[in-house]
From TrEMBL:
PANTHER family tied to this protein: SPORE DEVELOPMENT REGULATOR VOSA, VELVET COMPLEX SUBUNIT B
Protein name, as recorded: Velvet factor
Keywords: Nucleus, Transcription, Transcription regulation
One Pfam family of this chain: Velvet
Organism ancestry: Eukaryota, Fungi, Dikarya, Basidiomycota, Agaricomycotina
Cellular compartments per GO CC: nucleus
Stretches assigned to the Velvet domain: 1-259
Transcription listed as a keyword: yes
Source species of the chain: Dioszegia hungarica
Location relative to the cell: Nucleus
Region described as Disordered: spans on this chain: 127-152
Length: 271
């Protein structure tokens, strides 16, 4: 079998997370996975066809999102995702010169809510590109009050944490706009704590292969997003117009982030 894993809907922009307000990246990042059945023909060559997804349990597939270090762009150059908001056409395999630490999970709490602790360990500690380190910026000063609540106690954010929300999502099987059944991962709750240009990386794990007392399982497919921009709250231009794919999933009953009181950006935000 062969797996094709691609970010089919790119995040375009985001509003920096603050102590009082958190808004998800928009459009909602959507990742799709294709499963190919490979076989050898009578001539000795290899062919492939799409595997019937009805035999796959999507709840066993968990996709993890992590964020890159800030991406430096030349002055006056917009991230590619802000120039064109059409279908994704970037490489689907993970090839990048960014430095990631795939041995750890950057998230809102360091845990995968809804999954057993032993499963969290087997995924979070999965072996990756050893020897690489990820350097993330510190949180903004006003975010050091995160979690203070009524008690008045200040709870400082974990050093280096920059991506917040639901970083682990289960797969769902939904008919694609073109009519065939698809396997999707919807990241409806992701926000960033520091302004700048970033990429997202997505890795998928199969929980069905996890057994008691076994070592951490590696991911079996991964991909990256295009570069997107995170704005300061006062400079945020508003969420982009809903995409056809977003509207398709809304019609299927999914709640994708679209604030009714948020103005819509009609044109790409200015640099």
């Amino acid at each position: 079998q062969r797996f094709l894993f691609k970010c089919v809907q790119e995040p375009v922009s985001g509003r920096r997370k603050t102590d009082k307000d958190r808004r998800s990246l928009a459009p909602v990042p959507i990742v799709r996975m294709w499963v190919k059945e490979c076989y050898q023909d009578v001539m000795g060559g290899w062919s492939e066809s799409d595997l019937d997804l009805s035999d796959i349990d999507p709840s066993c597939l968990i996709c993890e999102a992590e964020i890159s270090p800030p991406v430096d762009l030349p002055a006056g150059v917009l991230p590619q995702s802000l120039k064109t908001q059409g279908p994704s056409n970037h490489r689907s395999s993970w090839i990048s010169d960014q430095h990631w630490d795939t041995r750890s999970v950057a998230g809102p709490s360091g845990t995968m809510q809804g999954y057993p602790e032993q499963v969290q360990h087997l995924i979070a500690d999965a072996p990756g590109d050893t020897g690489r380190t990820r350097k993330l910026p510190h949180a903004q000063p006003d975010e050091e009050l995160e979690g203070s609540g009524r008690s008045g106690k200040k709870a400082r954010l974990e050093v280096g944490r920059n991506l917040f929300g639901a970083l682990h999502v289960s797969g769902v099987k939904v008919v694609a706009p073109s009519g065939e059944l698809g396997l999707w991962f919807l990241f409806t709750d992701l926000c960033v704590g520091t302004e700048g240009n970033y990429r997202l990386r997505f890795r998928v794990f199969d929980l069905s292969v996890i057994k008691p007392q076994m070592p951490p399982v590696p991911h079996f497919a991964n991909c990256e997003s295009e570069i997107f921009k995170v704005w300061a709250p006062k400079a945020f231009p508003g969420i982009p117009k809903p995409t056809e794919l977003t509207e398709h999933f809304i019609k299927q009953g999914f709640k994708l982030n679209a604030r009714k009181n948020e103005r819509t950006a009609r044109t790409p935000p200015p640099e």
